[in-house]
Amino acid sequence: MERSIRFRLNETLHEIRLSGERLALDWIRGEAGLKGTKEGCREGDCGACLVLLGGLTGPAGASAPEAGGGMEWYSATACTLALSDLDGRHVITIEGLAQAGLTPVMSAMLDEGASQCGFCSPGFVLALTGFLVSGRHIDPVAAMTAVEGNLCRCTGYGSIRRAAVRLALEFADLPDDLPGRLAELGRRGVLPPSLAALMLAAPPPAARPPSPSTPGAATAATAASAATVIGGGTDYFVRHPDPEPGLQTVLVDQTPAARRIESLQADGADWLELGAAVTTSQFFASAAVQALVPGIERFADEIASPPIRNRATLAGNIANASPIADLTAMLLALDACLVLVGPAGARRLLRLDQFFLAYKKIDLQPGEAIAAIRLPAEPVRFNFEKVARRARLDIASANSALAVRLDGEGRIRQAVCSAGGIAAVPLRLAEVEALLTDALPSVELFREAGRLAAAAGTPQDDVRGSSVYRRRLLERFMWAHAIRLWPQLKLEKALFS
Amino acid sequence: MKHNFDFIQNLLGRTVYIDDLPEPANLLHAAVFTSPSAHGSFAGLDLSAALALDPTVRVLTAADIPGQNQLGTAVLDEPMLAEGVWHFRGQVIALVLAGSRSLARRAAAAIKLVGAADRPAVTDPRVAFARGDLILKPRTQRWGDSAAAFALCHLVVSGRADSAGQEHVYLETQGAIALPDDSGGVRLMSGTQGPSGVQKIVARVLGLPMNLVEVETRRMGGAFGGKEDQASGWAALAALGAFATQRPVKIYLSRRDDMTSTGKRHPYSSDFRIGLDKDGKILAFEADYYQNSGAACDLSPAIIPRTLFHAAGAYHIPNVRVTGYLCRTNLVPFTAFRGFGGPQGFFVIEAALDKAAAALGLDPVELRRRNLLREGDVSHYGMPHEGVLATETFERCLARAGYPERRAAIQEYNRTNPASKRGLAVMPVCFGISFTKMMMNQGGALIHVYNDGSVGVSTGATEMGQGVSRKLALIVARALGVSQTAVRVESTRTTTVANTMPTAASTGADINGMAAQLAATEIRQRLLAFAAASLQLDPASLTLRDGQLFADPEPAAGPLLSFAALVAKAYEGRVDLSAHAFFATPGLHYDLATERGCPFAYHVYGCALLTVTVDTLRGRYQFDDAIMVHDTGVSIDPLVDLGQIEGAFAQGLGWAALEDLRFDDKGRLLADTLSTYKLPDGHFMPRLDVEMLQRPNPKAVANSKAVGEPPLMYGIAGWFAIADALRAARPGLELAYDLPMTCEKVLGLLTGDLVPAGPSGGEAGR
C-alpha cells in the first residue's frame, strides 16, 4: 500500500511516497544524505542518532490554541522512529543547526574538549540544543538530565558536564514561552534565525487522512488488517531493527484527543482518563497526574531516557507486555483500567492486571486496540522502586510500586502493590495487599510484606539478575516502600538493627 | 588556532566515518553468517534461501579465498572463514554480499548449516589450564627469592581474584570499504588502528604482494584497542568481496554482530600470595594469572607480559614470582583493550593489599603509602625506576582530597545512616610506556611543505579521538615555527608511511610525534641553510617562529621574511621541501630467557582517590568524588590530556563496577547489545577533579608523557571503594575479589545471599 507523507527536514519541505515502513534514521542518512545523524546501536540506547522533532499540540490547521504557537519540540532517537511518523512534523538534524557554523552549544563543547572521536557529538549537540528549546528549568542538573540518553565512550563525561553547566548558566534567563524562547535562541545563535522562525510555524499538514471522532477507533479499524500497530516505536524497532520491505504499519492516533489527560465520570465512577497516545514525558509532567499521585514526577528519570520518554506511550508499554515494564508496574499499583475498542466501535473496560494472560500474551481481540487508560480519581500515596544495573536508561532487574489510601487514623484503608521481573507477566501482589489492608504501618508489618513479596512469583535467572537476587530485591522494595511512604516512623533504623 | 579543526568538524556533524563516505554506484554491502554455538562442526552450507532472496546476493566461503585463510599474527591459528569446524560463537563462516545492507543481513540470516554438530566447549580458563590447553608456554618473571621470603614474613595471605572482560563499545562499529584497483590489487578505507597490519593480512588472504594493497585510515569513531588487530578480519572480508566481484564492497557491522564476533578485554582468574613484615612492608608476592585467551591467539602473548610487568602495581616488592598462562577456551579471541593486561594485574595486587590490610588491621591507605615505589627501586624485571613520582602524586592526591578529614567525615556519615554507607579507596599507579614487544617501538613520518608554505604531515599514527592529530600538528608547527592552522595532519596511508605499527600502547604521540619532529627539524634546517646562504647571514643567527624568519639577536628589527615567502624562494632554489624521518625508541632491551631488561622508555605515575555512597537497603551505589593527580610530563595539549585522563578513568570505573560482560557456560555472551550491556553514562560518573603534574620528561617528545592508558587503572578504586562501604555496613565481611562489583553482588554481599567462593586464604603467622 503506497502512501504519501509530508514533513519539513531542517528548512526543506519533503513530500515522499512510501510503499512500506522504514526507519527515519535510514531515510535521513540514505535518501536525504544527512550523515551527521549517526547509527551507533540502532536500538535507542546511545543517542548518536538523536534528532529534534516538532509538531502541533493542537489540531492541524487550527489557530494557535495557546502561547507557544501550538508547536512543541522534543528530542527523539531516529533509530526507533517510524519514517511515516514524520508526516506533519518538522525534524531537525545537526545539519540544520550547523549551517552557519559553530553555535554556542557547539562552542561550549569545543572549549571544554567535550568531543573526542566525534561520533557521539552531533547527538549531544542536539540533546543540549533541544534542552535549551524546551527545557522547563534551565539549570545545570536539568542540562545533564537532558543528555541521559546519550552515551560517550571517550570523554568520561567530565568535559560534557562542564559544557552543559556552562550552557545552563549562560542561558538561565531564557523566556518560558516558546515563541519568546525561539526568538532569543535565534538571536543568540543557538539556532540559525531562519530555522528558529520555521520552528514556530506549523509544519506542513499531514498527508494521512484526518482522524475520526472516536479516539482509538481509527487505530482499531486498521489494526484489523495485517498492519502492525506502532505507538512511539521505541520498543517495536528495538525488536525489529531491520523492518521487512513493505512492512505495513498503523501509527497510533496522535491527535490531541488521543493525547488527552482529563477527568471524567463514566461507568459509574470518577476517573482520570489518559488517551492512547499519551507519552511517558507527558504523563509525568501532567498537573492532573501529579495531583492524583503526588510526587510521581520524581520517578520520571528512572524510566528510560529523555528521548525515549518523549516517544514511548503508556499504551505501548502496556501492550508490549514486558513483565518488567516500569510504567506498567506503576499503573498496576494505581489500579488502572483499560478502555478497549473493537473494530466496530464496541467498547469494554478491563482491569489492567487482567489484561496480561501469559508471557507476552494479552487479552486483546483481533482488531481491538487500547483506546484509553483510566485511573480511579481518588488521590493516593504512591511509591515506586526499581533497581537496574545502571541507574539511568536500563531495564530493571526488578521493580515494584505501592499505592495506599489511609483512613483518618493512619490505618491503611486500601493498598495496591505491583511487582515486575518476578513472573512471566507484571504482577499484583495480592497477599501483600491483603496483609497491608486495614493495618497500621510498622516494622513488623513490612518485614512480613517483604517475606510475602520475596516468595511471590517465579523469578528466573538472566542477564539482569538471578532469581535469588530478584526475590531479595522484592523483600527490600517492601521495606523501601515503608521507609519512603512513612518517613516519620524512621523504619530504616529498626529494619537495619 | 586554539582548537583542532577535527573537533570543530565533529561538532558541526561534518566528520566522515566509514559509513558516511560517499557510496560508489555499484557498491555491494556485506554481512556475515556466523557460528551458532561455542564449538562445533559442519559439513556445508545450504544457501538456497539466501540466494533466492535477490539476484544480487552472493555468498563467499573459505573455498573462495585465493590466498591463505589466516588472520593470525603471533600464531597462525585463526581462519578468517571457518572451514568445517568453528571454535567460538560468532565465528565468521560465510561472507554475504548484496545490493543493500538490509538485504545482505536478511540473506545472511537465511543461510543454514548442513550437517552441523556441537562439540564440547570450554569457557573457564582454569579448566583449559587443567586440560593443558595453553596457546603458548607460560611466562614467569622472578626477582629475589619469594619462597624463602615468605618464611620470614610476619603475615602471609593468599587468595583468588577474578576479573571479567570488557566490551570496547567504540561508538562506530567495525567497518571497511574495499575497492578493486586497476593494478590488480585493492584499495581499502579501514577503521583500524594499524593500517599496515590490515595491509599485511589482506595481502595474505588475497595472495597478493603488499604493494598491491593500499590501506587508508582517516579516523575511527573510537577504538580503545578493539581495532588494533581485530579490524583486519573485517577489512580482509571486504577485500575478498571486492576481489571476487570486482565491485566496491562495504562492511559495517551491526552492534549485535560487533559485540558477538569481536574480541574484548581478557577475563582473568588469578591466585595470589602476599607476605609482609610487621610494619606492613611487602616482602614477597607470588601470583598465577590464568588469562582467558579465547579461541585464538590474537594479541594474547603480548598482553600476558604487560600483566606480569604490572604485577607489583605502584609498589616496591623485593621478592616476586609471577606466572601468566594463555588458556585457550571456546570464547571469542580476546584482544587489546586500553591497559592491555595491565588492569588485570593491578586488580590482583590491589586485592592482595586489601586482604593484607584487613588481616593486619591497618588502614589500607597507610599500607599502600608504606610500599610505594621510590627513586632507584629496581623492578622485578630488573629495570631501575627513574624519575619516580609515586609518593609525590600519592601525597598530592591525598592532600587535594583532604584525606584524613574526608575519612573522618565518612565515618561520621556511616555512624548516623543505617541504610546508607560511604566508602573510600585510593589507587596509586605506575605504568610502563613502550610496546612490550620490542620491535614495535618504531615509527616513521613524512612531511611535505607545499610551495605556498602550508604543511602536510603523515605518520603511522591513527586518529581515534585521542587527539594524536592535534599533538602532531602542534609538534610540527613548533618545529617549523608556523601556526598550527598551517599544518594539516593527513590520513594514515600505507603508501605514504610504510611498515607502521598500530597506534597503541599509549605510544602514538611519543613515537610518531618524535618521528614528525625529526622530519620537521630536517626541513627547518634546510630552509635555514638556504636562507643563510641566500641572505649571506650566519645560519646560527636565524630562527623561524610565528610564521616568520628572524635574524637574532636583533628581533626588534622585525622579521626578514614570512615562512611562505621563504618556502617559495627555497622552492625556486631547488631545495627539497619534503622529509621522511624514522624514530626507534632508544635504550630498550629485554632478555626473554631471563625475563630481565629495560622494556619501557619510562613510567607514568599517578594516584586517584574515589568515594562512593552505597544504598544498603537496595544494594545500589553512586560514586561521589574522584580526585586524581596525574603525571603528564609537560603536556603538549592540556585539554587533550585532561580528556584522556577522565575518559580512561571512566572506562576503568565501568570495568570495575558496572560493565557486566558475562558468558553462559555454553559460551553465549549474555549482554550482546547496548540494551543489555551497560557502560557508564553521565549520571553514573562521579564529580571529577584532576590535577596534572607537569614535570619535564626527557624521555619523550617535547618533554611530554604518554597518557592514553595509565589513568584507566584509577577506575579500579571503584571496586575497593564499594568494598570499603560494604565493610562499614558489615564489619569483618569476607569478600570475593570478583570484578565487576555489580549491584547484584553488592546486595548479595550485604544480605549474605552471596557467599564468597574459592580458597579463603589462610594466614601464616610467625
CATH superfamily of the largest domain in chain A: Beta-grasp domain
- Total number of beta strands of chain B: 32
Distance between the termini of chain B: 65 Å
Low-confidence stretches of chain B: 759-766
Q: Give average pLDDT of chain B, whole number.
A: 96
Largest sheet of chain B at a glance? 8 strands, mixed
How far is the first residue's CA from the last residue's CA of chain A?
Answer: 66 Å
Number of helices of chain B: 19
Structural class of chain B: alpha+beta
Question: What is the CATH topology of the largest domain in chain B?
Answer: Aldehyde Oxidoreductase, domain 4
The order of strands across the largest sheet of chain B is 4-6-1-14-11-12-13-22
What would your notes on this structure say?
- The complex is a heterodimer of chains A (497) and B (766).
- By secondary structure, chain A is α+β, with helices and mostly antiparallel strands.
- Chain A folds into 3 domains: 1-209, Beta-grasp domain (Ubiquitin-like (UB roll), Roll); 210-379, Uridine Diphospho-n-acetylenolpyruvylglucosamine Reductase, domain 3 (2-Layer Sandwich); 381-497, CO dehydrogenase flavoprotein, C-terminal domain (Enolase-like, domain 1, 2-Layer Sandwich).
- Chain A has 20 helices and 18 strands.
- Chain A has helices at residues 24-29, 94-97, 104-111, 121-134, 140-146, 158-170, 178-187, 193-200, 217-223, 236-239, 280-285, 287-292, 306-309, 314-320, 326-333, 352-355, 430-436, 443-455, 467-485, 491-495; strands spanning 3-9, 12-18, 50-56, 71-77, 89-92, 228-230, 249-251, 261-266, 269-275, 337-341, 347-351, 356-358, 361-362, 369-376, 381-387, 398-406, 412-420, 427-428.
- In chain A, the strands form 5 sheets. In chain A, strands 2-1-5-3-4 form a 5-stranded mixed sheet. In chain A, strands 8-9-14-10-11 form a 5-stranded antiparallel sheet.
- In chain A, α3 (104-111) crosses α6 (158-170).
- Chain A starts with a strand and ends with a helix.
- With 766 residues, chain B is of the alpha+beta class.
- Chain B has 3 domains: 6-119 and 174-252, Aldehyde Oxidoreductase, domain 3, CATH 3.90.1170.50; 268-436 and 594-751, Aldehyde oxidase/xanthine dehydrogenase, molybdopterin binding domain (Aldehyde Oxidoreductase, domain 4, 2-Layer Sandwich); 442-584, Aldehyde Oxidoreductase, domain 4 (2-Layer Sandwich).
- Chain B is built from 19 helices and 32 strands.
- In chain B, the strands form 8 sheets. In chain B, strands 4-6-1-14-11-12-13-22 form an 8-stranded mixed sheet. A 6-stranded mixed sheet of chain B has the order 9-17-16-15-10-32. Chain B has a 4-stranded mixed sheet with strand order 18-29-30-31, with helices on both faces.
- Chain B starts with a helix and ends in a 15-residue tail after the last helix.
- Residues 759-766 of chain B have low confidence and may be disordered.
- Classes of the chains: A alpha+beta (497), B alpha+beta (766).
- Chains A and B meet through α2, α3, α4, α6 and α19 of A and α1, α3, α17 and α19 of B.
